[in-house]
Ferredoxin reductase family protein
Amino acid sequence: MVARTGLYTLLAANVAVVTAFFFQSGLASNALLLLGRLTGLYAALLMAFQLLLVARLPWLDHRIGMDRLTSWHRWVGFGLLWSLLGHGVFITFGYAQSSSMDPVSQLVDLAETVEGVLRAIVALVLIIVIGAVSARWARRRLAYETWHFIHLYTYVAVVLAFTHQVAVGTTFTTNSTATAYWYALWGVALGSVFVGRLVLPLWRNLRHQLRVSAVVPESDNVVSVYITGRDLDKLPARAGQFFLWRFMTKGRWWQANPFSLSAAPDGRSLRLTAKAAGDGTKALRHLKVGTRVFAEGPYGAFTTMHRTRPDALLIAGGVGVTPIRALLEDLHGHAAVIYRVATDQDAVLYDELRELAHAKGAHLFLVSGPATPDKLAPAELTRLVPDIADRDVYVCGPPGMTGAVLRTLRDLDVPKQQIHFERFSLAG
């Protein structure tokens, strides 16, 4: 909560600062140019904030969670797209109004005669393309690696937009205080990305030298991979978190897959458990002992760090059981565990869960059957765990199941601060 409030406050404060600089820089010759300048400044601010959201800084990620940061990133991205479109349209029509040229001719004239405008147009086209492939209908049709590669052009767009702002931005050219502010803002944003996405992962992997130590089939389509390395007791991983894993084999080293830890870190080894859902996950079964591993993380706020009650309820769906199993190992106080699967045969790691629940005095419920009727409806959850409103509730599973359980928890008046969730898209 403190981290979220801090981010909101930071953004609001910067909006106020940017607005003040806007009014200090003087008014434009017409209202359209005025709107164009203002939307351009807000777009620049959103772009810098967007970089902060994707920087994967541990302090933010462990308190807010990549699940929520990813959601914010998506919505800020669409806000950025519309701000940039507004900036381009308002500026073009504003100058066209002053020069009596038609908008298309005016845009061509600006691109040919004003430094930085052509770079801004290229940046806008890149943002439009990235926004298009981020739409749900397009995202579902693209491989993760393709989508990720296209997103890398965001950094090209950022550089082009920044140089455009330096060249023609009124707050850069007329106000030294504003110039210092914008350089500091972009420096912090780009520096955060550099540290969080490059420096920290490289340093951790050089330090820990991760390798595959064992590959254990759990069922026909589920496999566990054990990983060892140096000084793992100094790796700040917690039960419930996940890594982006790259297994350094021919043809696979460039693929990164998010898998949760399926056992609490013990300082000696790490374990992930995955269900075959594509070529990348199917290939895990054929990994050889000794294969080098490059891991980015740990990521996620789905940990005991945010506990508010002494007792807990853990609800897992499908392979979303992996972080739930790790959390159960790490929890103190009484725990109840509900494992939702289509059939009993789909209950991955169930024997481990049962032994662990017995050792910790936890109650374990295996709930199987078709999706309808809803076996995790309010009446059913209350029957299984009568004191649910007095517990922290952790939920991890496919998006459909997770959404349904979250609605049920709201119906049962479970306080929002006691609900912790991770969607299968990141946890699986």
